[in-house]
Structures are given as C-alpha cells and as structure tokens.
C-alpha cells in the first residue's frame, strides 16, 4: 500500500517558518512511523533531520508530534494512524525551540530537570553511613509505604509531557511535568532525610512550581511509559500541605477550602478569597469590588444564620481524617 506522509520541514538557513512537505511511500505490514521516516530520509530526502537511537521505546529520542499528539515514532503503527486519522502528519515536539525539521532544542527541558535537584541530598540519620543500602526492599529503617515510587522512575525523559503541557504553552517558566515527576521520585525515596524532603518541597512551592499545573491531564495521555506525571504533582502538593509548606496561593486555596468546609459544612464564597490573599492589605482592597458584587448576587451567607443540618457529621469526617 502506498501512503502519503506529510512532514513539517524547517531549515533555519532558508525558511522563515516551518512548512509541510508530502512524501509518498510504499508501506509494509507492521511498519512504524520511525521506519517510514528512516526510509524517506534514505530513499527520498537525505536532508530530513530527525532524532532516533534505540528504536525500542527506551531512549525517548524519537518523540515527535504525530497527527496532533505527542508520541514515540518507534512504537507508533503507520497502519493504526492511517485507519484512525485517514492520513499521517508528522511534526516536531511543541513548546520547545525548533532546530531543524523534527529536531527540537532540549536544553530548556534538561535545565528544568536539573532545577529540581534530581539526586539524593542526604542519608537518613537512622542508618549508619557505613551500612549499605539495599534498595526499596530494604525496609528495616523505614515505615511501609515510604518506598513506593509509583512508576515515576520509569520516565525516559522523552519530553512528550512538556510538549503537551498547556501550562508550559502559556508559561515557559513552569518547571514542567517531567521534572516534577522526577522530584516526586526523590520525595518517595527512603534514603533522603525528612529535612531534605521539606527543603525540596519548599523550593517547588514558589512560582512556576507544583501549583501552576492546571491538571489538564494531557501529560498523562501522552506519556509512553505510564508515568502519570499529573498524579505525581498531586502527591507533591499533598505532601507539601502535610508538612506545612503552604505559602503559595494554590496551597492556601486548598487549606482554606478545607478549613471553611470543616467549620461551616459548606463553602463560604465570601470568606474563600480572604483565605487566599491573607493579610495583604493591597490585595484585600482589590477584593472589595468583588465582595460587593457577591453580596448583591446573594453569594454572601448570613453570618448569623443557624448551622446547616448535619454539620456535626461533616466535622467528624474531618476529625477522623486528621487523626488517621
């Protein structure tokens, strides 16, 4: 069967922007997109630039955009793509600087990974320095559950999650799902001390950190290794709050939301903004027009009203959760 492959081409020496180019190729059963690209490069256009190495979904080099979604070309079936989309369009990863054709500059990606300190900072005090560590199965000094990496250590650093990230698209400073998943892997490592984990979370609590994720779930959809970066980010958020690292607006929103519901049995929308801005006078003054509109729309509960029915049941739920 002879199919048409539409490939984004870009030569920085001659092109102002990327443009599509069509290539016709006879495809065989079981052919992958990477197989097709290699044949096109060898048989039709030797100037085509792309990255690949292992051809076994291990190195992550061949990550690219295929029919609008980030995928590894080496594990993407030509036949399935054609049957699902009626064509095959191939382009570079998004949200990363384009070098040529299907090759992007990964320097910013690696910079974000380095920014989360992707190494162990210290050993736990409970284990003598001379005693060897035998890996996650060595549970003698650690309570159960502290050694579960949730598959985040399966990440092959392909960059697909960053290319699909909607936050990174509008805020390039966002540290990104891959780097945060890597941070979660070290947070779960029993060899790192509690103080080091708290420092790690404090660094991620600021701007462009764990609270910038919009939970769009695209990183989970495109990850070729089922790392689930968004779930790793949620775990980082929960642990930050548990350790009292809650200076950012996102953390204050969650803590304030839970506090209001535990006391009143429901969300008080008039108090919620105050929980987020704290005692920042300028921001409080900026909230006055919003408060007035909420009052006119009936969004401000009567502070003298009787508690809602079942309030004690709700408080018992929160009390049980805090004691667990």
Explain what you see.
- With 324 residues, this protein is of the alpha+beta class.
- It contains 13 helices and seven strands.
- The longest helix is centred in the last third of the chain and has 16 residues, at 249-264.
- Helix 10 crosses helix 13 (311-323).
- 40% of the residues lie in helices and 10% in strands.
- The protein folds into three domains: 2-104, Beta-grasp domain (Ubiquitin-like (UB roll)), CATH 3.10.20.30; 107-242, Alpha-helical ferredoxin (Fumarate Reductase Iron-sulfur Protein, Chain B, domain 2); 249-323, no CATH class.
- The strands form two sheets. The chain has a five-stranded mixed β-sheet. It has a two-stranded antiparallel sheet with strand order 6-7.
- It is elongated and about 80 Å long.
Protein topology:
Layout: E1 2-9, E2 19-26, H1 33-43, E3 63-66, E4 69-72, H2 78-85, E5 88-91, E6 98-100, E7 103-104, H3 107-115, H4 160-164, H5 166-170, H6 177-187, H7 194-204, H8 218-222, H9 229-242, H10 249-264, H11 272-277, H12 281-296, H13 311-323
Parallel strand pairs: 1-5
Antiparallel strand pairs: 1-2, 3-4, 3-5, 6-7
Helix pairs in contact: 3-6, 6-9, 10-13
Short description:
Helix content is 40%, strand content 10%. The protein is an alpha+beta fold and 324 residues long. The chain has three domains: 2-104, Beta-grasp domain (Ubiquitin-like (UB roll), Roll); 107-242, Orthogonal Bundle (Fumarate Reductase Iron-sulfur Protein, Chain B, domain 2), CATH 1.10.1060.10; 249-323, no CATH class.
């Amino acid at each position: 069967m002879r199919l048409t492959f539409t490939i984004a081409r870009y030569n920085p020496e001659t092109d102002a922007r990327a443009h599509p180019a069509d290539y016709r190729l006879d495809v065989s059963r079981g052919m992958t997109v990477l197989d097709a690209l290699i044949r096109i490069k060898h048989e039709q256009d030797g100037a085509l630039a792309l990255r690949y190495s292992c051809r076994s979904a291990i190195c992550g080099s061949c990550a690219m955009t295929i029919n609008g979604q980030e995928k590894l070309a080496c594990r993407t079936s030509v036949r399935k793509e054609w049957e699902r989309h009626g064509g095959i369009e191939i382009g570079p990863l998004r949200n990363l600087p384009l070098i040529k054709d299907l090759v992007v500059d990964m320097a910013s990606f690696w910079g974000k990974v380095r920014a989360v300190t992707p190494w162990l900072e210290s050993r736990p005090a409970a284990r003598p320095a001379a005693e060897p560590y035998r890996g996650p199965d060595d549970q003698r000094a650690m309570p159960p559950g502290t050694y579960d990496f949730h598959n985040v250590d399966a990440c092959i650093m392909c960059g697909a999650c960053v290319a699909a990230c909607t936050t990174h698209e509008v805020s390039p400073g966002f540290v990104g799902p891959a780097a945060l998943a890597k941070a979660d892997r070290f947070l779960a490592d029993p060899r790192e001390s509690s103080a080091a984990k708290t420092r790690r979370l404090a660094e991620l609590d600021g701007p462009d950190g764990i609270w910038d994720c919009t939970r769009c779930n695209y990183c989970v959809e495109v990850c070729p290794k089922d790392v689930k970066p968004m779930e790793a980010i949620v775990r980082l958020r929960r642990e930050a709050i548990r350790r009292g690292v809650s200076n950012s607006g996102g953390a204050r929103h969650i803590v304030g939301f839970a506090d209001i519901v535990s006391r009143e049995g429901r969300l008080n929308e008039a108090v919620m903004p105050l929980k987020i801005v704290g005692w920042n006078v300028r921001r409080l003054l900026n909230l006055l027009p919003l408060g007035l509109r909420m009052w006119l729309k009936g969004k401000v509960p009567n502070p003298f009203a009787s508690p809602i029915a079942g309030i004690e049941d709700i408080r018992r739920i929160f009390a049980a959760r805090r004691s667990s």
